[in-house]
Amino acid sequence: MIVLSCPHCGNTAVIKFGTNRSGTPRCRCKACAKTFTRSPKSRVMTPEREALILGALKERLSQRGIARALKVGRQTVRAVRKDVIEKGRPA
Fold it and tell me: Is the pTM for the entire model greater than 0.70?
């Protein structure tokens, strides 16, 4: 059995406390009441998702519309657009 300890206070009285957005389990310390993720996953932009955003931008769809359709944040759409403009990558 794996003994899990709180990274904040070191106490071993830890309970499961749901999941985060990427689906990994969250934990909560009974002593200090802080929550943490044992092994968080990175939420990086996949090349496929970036290609979909760039394709939608080529079609001159609105940034809000792209964000809604692809279920990403508006800031993500803006960041991909800015990346293309700054690096001069072919869109």
Answer: no
